Every structure is written in structure tokens, then in C-alpha cells.
């Protein structure tokens, strides 16, 4: 079944692929920060601004999503799969918002400066509290695992639509129409 007319607008497609690369980078940076003492300072210096960039971009992406409805799934997609797709997309948005905010709060609670780059620090958004820091650190780690699992599920579903169903769902995000209206 083809979805010739159904596509995401250019802004949605650019933000999707840019943020996919950023989130995958963040997941690998997060794992590497825990695994390597040698590279940890450099990776932390990358992790903080990348997290805040994701936070800002997800706000733009949510605004775009609310202004431009995504194309509908093919009519023959089972109701449970459509519901799972809908739920997983909103879970991804929630995690893209929560992860940077929890990370920022965690550093604030730990009394650490939130250095974006030399000369620019973000203000704390949580009170200095070691117990809160520990709780937020655990939450940040657990949600990172959930984000990883959700990304794997999203990628698996996208490849299922591309290789098995061949229904145009993947192409709606991958390339759009021959022309792209600047809606």
C-alpha cells in the first residue's frame, strides 16, 4: 500500500534525523562516560551542551508536530500497532524532554556548575541536596535504558515498514514528496 500523498514536512524530517543522530550520540557518550575515566571529562563537556540542544530542539519539534499533523498510518495497520506507534512516539517526546531536564536538575542538586562552554553556565533548577542528586542520578540512568529500548523499538518498527510491509511509512519520514511545500 502506497502513501504517495502522506509525508512529514521538511522541518519534521530535518529535526527527526538530526535528533536521531544526537540521541544516538548521547546514548554512546553516556555509556562511555561510565566506562572510561580517561575520557570522562571530555565526554561530560560534550554531554551537557548536547543534552540542552536536544531539549531546545524537542520543543521546536513539538511545536512543529502540533502545527503539522503527521500523515496517517495505512488503513490496514492493525489497531494495536497503530496504538503502539502513537504511544511510542509520545514516549519518545516525553523522554527527549525529561532526560535533559533530569540531567540539569541532577547537576543542580549535586551543586555542580552546568557549564555549556567557557563563559556560559546555566542556572541551577533544583536545590542543592545530595539525596535529591542520588535520586535524580538513578532516574537519569533508568530513563536512559528506557530511551535506548524505545529507540530500538522505533527503529525496528521503521525497518519493518520499510522491508516487510513496504507501505511507504518509512519513506514518509525519509524523503517526503518530489517537491516540498514550505508549510
UniProtKB/TrEMBL annotation:
One MF term in GO for this entry?
A: electron transfer activity
Membrane topology per the entry is: Multi-pass membrane protein
Record Gene3D superfamilies:
Transmembrane di-heme cytochromes, Chain C (1.20.950.20)
Cytochrome b561 bacterial/Ni-hydrogenase domain boundaries = 7-176
Cofactor(s), by name: heme b
Q: Which UniProt keywords apply?
A: Cell membrane, Electron transport, Heme, Iron, Membrane, Metal-binding, Transmembrane, Transmembrane helix, Transport
Cellular compartments per GO CC: plasma membrane
UniProt keyword S-adenosyl-L-methionine, yes or no: no
The compartments listed are: Cell membrane
Q: Does the keyword Metal-binding apply?
A: yes
Q: Main location per UniProt?
A: membrane
Q: Which GO terms describe its biological process?
A: respiratory electron transport chain
Membrane-crossing segments per the record: 12-34, 46-63, 90-115, 142-164
InterPro entries in alphabetical order: Cyt_b561_bac/Ni-Hgenase, Cytochrome_b561_oxidase, Di-haem_cyt_TM
Give the UniProt family note.
Answer: Belongs to the cytochrome b561 family.
- This protein is called Cytochrome B561
User: Which organism is the protein's source?
Assistant: Stenotrophomonas humi
Amino acid at each position: 500500500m502506497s502513501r504517495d500523498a502522506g509525508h512529514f514536512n521538511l522541518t519534521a524530517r530535518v529535526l527527526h534525523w538530526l535528533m536521531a543522530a544526537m540521541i544516538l550520540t548521547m546514548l554512546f557518550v553516556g555509556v562511555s562516560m561510565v566506562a572510561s575515566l580517561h575520557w570522562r571529562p571530555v565526554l561530560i563537556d560534550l554531554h551537557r551542551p548536547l543534552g540542552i540542544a536536544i531539549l531546545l530542539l524537542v520543543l521546536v519539534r513539538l511545536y512543529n508536530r502540533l502545527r503539522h499533523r503527521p500523515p496517517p498510518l495505512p488503513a490496514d495497520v492493525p489497531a494495536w500497532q497503530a496504538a503502539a506507534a502513537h504511544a511510542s512516539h509520545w514516549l519518545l517526546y516525553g523522554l527527549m524532554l525529561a532526560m535533559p531536564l533530569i540531567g540539569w536538575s541532577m547537576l543542580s542538586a549535586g551543586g555542580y556548575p552546568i557549564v555549556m562552554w567557557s563563559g556560559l553556565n546555566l542556572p541551577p533548577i533544583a536545590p542543592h541536596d545530595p539525596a535529591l542528586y542520588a535520586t535524580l542520578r538513578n532516574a537519569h540512568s533508568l530513563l536512559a535504558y528506557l530511551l535506548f529500548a524505545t529507540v530500538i523499538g522505533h527503529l525496528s518498527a521503521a525497518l519493518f515498514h520499510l522491508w516487510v510491509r513496504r507501505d511507504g511509512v518509512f519513506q514518509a519520514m525519509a524523503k517526503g514528496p518530489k517537491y516540498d511545500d514550505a508549510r
